[in-house]
Each structure stands twice: as C-alpha cells, then as structure tokens.
Automatic annotation (TrEMBL):
The keyword Disulfide bond does not apply. It comes from Methanohalophilus halophilus. Keywords: FAD, Flavoprotein, Lipoprotein, Magnesium, Metal-binding, Transferase. PANTHER family: FAD:PROTEIN FMN TRANSFERASE, THIAMINE BIOSYNTHESIS LIPOPROTEIN APBE. SUPFAM superfamilies: ApbE-like (SSF143631). Its cofactor is Mg(2+). It catalyses: L-threonyl-[protein] + FAD = FMN-L-threonyl-[protein] + AMP + H(+). Its EC number is 2.7.1.180. This is FAD:protein FMN transferase. Pfam families: ApbE.
Length: 340
C-alpha cells in the first residue's frame, strides 16, 4: 500500500478509536435521569424544590442557587422585615435606588388592582393592621367600628403610588403589603434560576402555590392534588401540570382569631373580611400571576371573578363557595386527571 494512504488510514483509525473512547468514557460517567429535591422553611411556609437531572452535584447546586434567589426576593419584599425595601418604604414613605425586584412587583400589583376594579390592592395594609389590632391574644376580639374602617379605607388606593426612575413614593400614613403577590414572584425567581442552570424539568412549591416546568423522568406530567376544604383524605381534583403555575387562596388555613372566624383576606374596597368563597384556585403561565389572581378572585364576587378570568389568556380557575359548590372556568377541565 502506498505509504501516504497507509498514514491517512492510520490517522483515521486513531481518530475513530479516540472518539469511541471519549464517547464510551462520557457514557460511563453519566447518571440516569432522576428527581432530586430539598424542602426548607421560607416565607413562613414549607418550600420544596424538585429537579430532574442526571448529575447529583449539578442538581443540588441548582437547587441551592434557586433557594438563594427565593430568599433574596423574600427579604426584599417582606413588609415585616426591618431590613427589607418594603419595610423601609412603609416607614419613610419613600425609597430611592429601589431594586428592580420591588419595582416590578409593585407595578404588577398596580396592574391587578386596575383589572379587578380595586379587589386587589397592595395598599390594603392599614386595613389589615386595623383588623389585626382587634383580634388575637390580649386583644378585644371585637370588630373595628365603621368609622375606624372608613378612616383606613381613605388610605387604600394603589394609584397613589408614584414610581419615578428608581424612586418609589407612597402617601402619608399609607402602607403596602405584598403578601398576595410576593410568594408567586419568589417562586418565579427560583424557576428562572433553575432554567439558567440548565434545568428543564422540575417544580417549586411554596405552601401549595407552585410552578411546574417540563415533566417527570418517565415523561409524565407533574400531579397536583387540590385540598378539600373539609381536609378529607381525597382531593377535590388532581391537576396535570406541565409549564404552568397553580395557586390557591382560602379562608380555611389562617385566621386572626379562629373562634371569630375572621379571614386574613380583607376586601380593599369595603375594609371587611370576605366570606363568600372558601377557596379560589388559579392556573396561569407564571406564579406571580397565579398568586395575585387567586387573591383577587377570592375577594371578588363569584360571578365577577369568573367573568374576569374568562377574559385572561392562559388563565383558568376553580372556585368553591361558602355552600361548598364548585365552579370551574371554561378551560379548567383540560388540566384535570380523568377519573377511572
């Protein structure tokens, strides 16, 4: 054989064998795709982050990064944390050089107030504080007077928030609370962190409010059981979740005073706790949207809330009224598991 061709053939064999060796080594070092998860207490609730990965170290590093992003968002937006931007804004009525996080969340809060005719309003803090002052240990445990409520209602109006460049200003005696939207934003931040780390499949669940991306290792969708208000063993329904967020607001989990049955969710328009719904579950593209709309619909009258949801693209709801009657939006059923 011509020496030139022999040299070329030898190089081809070396390259081929080398490629096969690298490929074989890579396959030998790879792990099977499986789920990895961690659960921590954050934002006064249990938060679980689950990812699908074929590398344990990468999986847990990604989960750690996601928790860090959630904690940062929570620390910025918690109105009761004295070092948070929200607390500083409430104390000083102004904050300069505000972070993009709080500006975005406040702007979204103003938007949901606009589309709901005030049923959602992040300036409801004076009303919530008033009710909290009336119910609890060593409190009178009697409702506030009509005059007290009217005085606080005059402070509730998110259109009085001014955002100019990176400066946020609220009116005298006003206060904002982001509890109806901050958890959803923190979940979205965690999902964004996972995706930046190359995680395509997994979920973040914060006290029942979560966002789900991709699928399980077996190719199936993630499953979410909606709790029965009576806390029976069987869920009301099971949602198949892929690339959606789900959030629920209800008055059967937290009360200022259980014997008085005072809900922690007050109507910003009236100043009184709401009681016509037991729970409102929202399916939406993002967790911040699902979180805010769950609170919004819970406050609104059942028919008006359903009417608003039907107008929003990619959003569905399931409502349970005080008579324990269940109402679904027109597209909710497509997310539910078929019963045997």
């Amino acid at each position: 054989m011509n020496p030139k061709y022999l040299l070329i053939l030898t190089l081809i064999i070396i390259i081929t064998v080398g490629f096969a060796y690298v490929q074989s080594t890579s396959e030998d070092n790879s792990e099977e795709y499986r789920t990895y998860n961690q659960t921590r207490m954050l934002m006064d609730t249990s938060v679980t982050i689950t990812v699908v990965d074929n590398n344990e170290v990468h999986a847990y590093n990604s989960i750690e990064d996601a928790f860090m992003k959630m904690e940062r968002a929570s620390n910025l937006l918690d109105s009761y944390n004295k070092s948070s931007e929200t607390y500083i804004l409430n104390e000083n009525k102004e904050i300069k050089n505000a972070s993009d996080d709080i500006i975005y969340v406040i702007e979204r809060g103003i938007y949901y107030s606009q589309i709901s005719d005030g049923a959602f309003d992040i300036t409801v803090k004076p009303v919530l504080d008033l009710w909290a002052s009336k119910f609890g240990p060593d409190k009178p445990n009697i409702p506030p007077t009509e005059n007290e409520i009217n005085n606080t209602l005059s402070l509730v109006n998110s259109s009085n928030i001014t955002i100019n460049d990176n400066t946020i200003i609220i009116g005298k005696n006003m206060g904002i609370v982001l509890g109806g939207i901050a958890k959803g934003y923190a979940v979205d931040r965690a999902i964004g962190s996972l995706q930046e780390n190359g995680i395509d499949d997994g979920f973040v669940n914060a006290g029942g409010d979560g966002r789900y991306i991709g699928e399980k290792p077996d190719g199936q969708e993630w499953s979410i059981g909606l709790q029965d208000p009576d806390k029976q063993a069987e869920p009301i329904t099971i949602i198949n979740a892929r690339n959606i967020a789900v959030a629920t607001s209800g008055n059967y989990e937290r009360y200022y005073n259980k014997s008085a049955s005072v809900s922690h969710i007050a109507d910003p328009r009236t100043g009184y706790p709401v009681s016509h719904l037991i729970s409102a579950t929202i399916i939406a593209p993002t967790a911040i949207e699902a979180d805010a709309l769950a609170t919004t619909v819970f406050v609104m009258e059942e028919e008006k809330g359903l009417e608003m949801i039907e107008k929003l693209e990619g959003v569905e709801c399931l409502l349970i009224n005080s008579e324990k009657e269940i109402t679904r939006s027109s597209g909710f059923a497509k997310y539910e598991q078929l019963k045997d």
